[in-house]
Amino acid sequence: MKLKLIALNIILILLCFLGLIPILYALSLSLSGGGGALSAELSLLPEKLTLENYRKIIVEEPFFTWLSNSVILSVATMRIAIGFAVVASYAFSRFKFKGRNGILKLLLVLNAFPQILSMFAIFRLFKTMEMLDSKIGLVVIYAGSMCIFSIWNMKGYFDTIPIEIEEASRIDGAGDFQLLWKIVLPLAMPAVVVTAVMVLISVWNEYLFATTFMMNEKSYTLAGGLYQLQSNDYGRSWPLFSAAAIMVSMPILIVFFCIQKYMVSGLTAGGVKG
Asked: Where is the ABC transmembrane type-1 domain (predicted)?
């Protein structure tokens, strides 16, 4: 049994290392000179260590403008989506009203369709409403799609909270708002935090709508900026693109490490209850 456990750990470590190879190669490429990508050998160590690619991204490209746009869109979407989803998922979990199961299934079906299917219709609608090249328009799109996932994930967690706790609070005189804000939300904090971060990551990495609905380079998000780097004048500069990709990943990586203690309970409890 012990040998099997050791063998399993070794296999998992090897798999983790294999998964890290593309990231380590991108890091090595970002720290190498312009000819690093042309080398015939696959090396994880740069031949000549330099930060020139990072300097070019910061000085010669509107990186901080893209970063600002990404932060605004991600945080605004997260707050709106989680704000609506907390109330809706609690209602779906606790109240047995007519059409409840039908609405939940309809939301699931709507979420099953690819977003690109609705892109042209939304584009025409936003053009009529003069909401193209607007952060508000993108936040509306992102929040609408993220709400469905958030409702389903948090409803599963609310289902695991014993209703006796809420009944005891009602006997003590707690109203509906106090019950949700002071009793239920602290208990459901792992699911709320994990769902919020998953919404944040989804918006942070989204580039299809960002590059379609934003009409000029100054309005791009980080993901849109990366696409711009890869497709235009720096299309062949993979070291520069790798440096930009590493910098784009760092904020989300920091957030992920900050909330990792919530990840297991927030995902598993929300995923097993229907």
From this structure: 67-259
Q: Work out the number of other CB atoms within 10 angstroms of the CB of residue 148.
A: 20
Give the integer Cα–Cα distance in Å for 26 and 273. Answer: 39
**pTM exceeding the 0.70 threshold for the entire prediction:** yes
pLDDT digits (tens, 9 = 90+) for 102-153: 998 898 888 888 878 888 888 888 888 888 888 898 999 999 888 988 998 8
Q: How far is CA 260 from CA 53, 170, 251, 264, in A?
A: 31, 33, 14, 8
Token readout for 38 is 């042309």
Own/partner contacts of 255-261, CB < 8 Å, gap of 24 or more, are 255/197, 255/200, 256/197, 256/201, 259/193, 259/194, 259/197
Of the candidates 222, 230, 226, the one whose C-alpha atom is nearest the C-alpha of residue 37 is 230
Show contacts of 180-185: CB within 8 Å, 24+ apart.
180/86, 180/87, 180/90, 184/90, 184/158, 185/86
Gap between the Cα atoms of 145 and 118, Å rounded: 11
66 CB-near residues (< 8 Å, 6+ apart): 220, 221, 222, 224, 225
Write out the two tokens for 35. Answer: 């000819």
Coil, strand, or helix at residue 237?
coil
**DSSP assignment, residue 184?**
I
Query: CB atoms < 10 A from the CB of 181, how many?
Result: 13
Yes or no: say if 50 and 32 are a contact pair by the CB < 8 Å rule: yes
Instruction: Judge contact between 270 and 157, C-beta under 8 A.
Output: yes
What are the phi and psi torsion angles at 42 (to 5°)?
-90, 105
Confidence of residue 78 (pLDDT cuts 50, 70, 90): very high
The span from the CA of 203 to the CA of 70, in Å, is 8
80: tokens are: 């709106």
